[in-house]
Amino acid sequence: MTLRVAMVAGEASGDLLASHLIAALKARVPDAVFYGIGGPKMAAQGFDAWWPAETLAVMGFSDALKRYRELSGIRSELKKRLLADPPDVFIGVDAPDFNLDLEAALKARGIPAVHYVSPSIWAWRRGRIKKIRRAVSRILALFPFEPEIYAQAGVPVSYVGHPLADLLPMDPDRAATRELLGIPQAAPVFALLPGSRQGELRFLADTFIAAARLVREQLPEARFLVPLATRETRLMFEQALYRCQAQDLPIRLLFGHAHEAMIAADGVLVASGTATLEAALLKRPMVIAYKLAPFSYFLMKRMGYLPYVGLPNILAGRFVVPEFIQKAATPEKLAEALVAQYADKEGRAAIVAEFERIHHELRQNTSERAAEAVLSCLRRQPSGNGLAVA
Predict the structure, then answer these.
(1) Which CATH topology does 4-161+364-389 take?
(2) Structure pTM?
(3) 9, 27, 133, 382: most buried, per Cβ within 10 A?
(4) So where are the chain's domains?
(5) Tell me: the pLDDT tens digits for 71-85?
(6) Are 83 and 102 within 8 A, CB to CB?
């Protein structure tokens, strides 16, 4: 019998994670089929997307509330289809606010429910662990400090590491990347990553451009690379450049190529999120910034209990790189931090050393580990010719 895997992945990061997991599962069970909600990378692996992954992209509580009825309707329809024709296993990739309720309903009907990427219970809303225990058959944890939290709560968990640590080079070649991009080797270069979502650009684009102008005043030879993932975000940033009257700044827009931009850079100004981990794994000093709707920030601040929000600092357990959140994220503070970091050679070396340690810790052959954990949850285990009853 064919292995049937239902999946839900939201946004670009979930699409990437899921696509590698699909490839690893197909290597073990070549005739497996995959369907549900997913993105283009999953589709390239043969995934049948009933809804596109970007359908689930929301930014903060305000956006989630506005789209609650729409997303609830999609989840209800998906649950109905999956219960009517049950898959062998369901994998929810991140998107916990969407996936956990769905996983609970499927698990209650005897369908194994795997949640790939632990919700950030170590940062805020730790009470969700009770809901997670009811909802999932197994958590696949990306970070080394997470399994202990789940084990203490009685939640089956597997530490699989982070796939980006497998994909990104341990020692990126900055000189070769600068040559590829046509950038002088000695020029001060900064990568600006104001976010992959349109909502993030609305809050951060103008601030990042103003910070670049201030950096340029102190470092006249400075250049800036801005990788943007979609036509919509590129257009938004171009509009921000016009609005800020910044056409004179040496800002080069790239369509994608975020990794190349970060590798080529001396420093990175980045919105809090997965890109901060990418910058750390590429061994680049950074300054982290974030802004969101006031009401969303108010709620998150009340429920949070870590002094930092950036993944590199969370993984290090201390402030390795500076963070500026909400009103603190002013152009002046961001520019000051970028220039100070650029000038501090010893400090930069210490940052790189810590990022190398994190990289080794997260490099675990993630997709292979995740595939093994998923298959261990099946009621029917794969055999040479398909599935056999366990």
Answers:
(1) Rossmann fold (3.40.50)
(2) 0.81
(3) 9
(4) 4-161+364-389, 167-362
(5) 788 899 999 999 999
(6) no
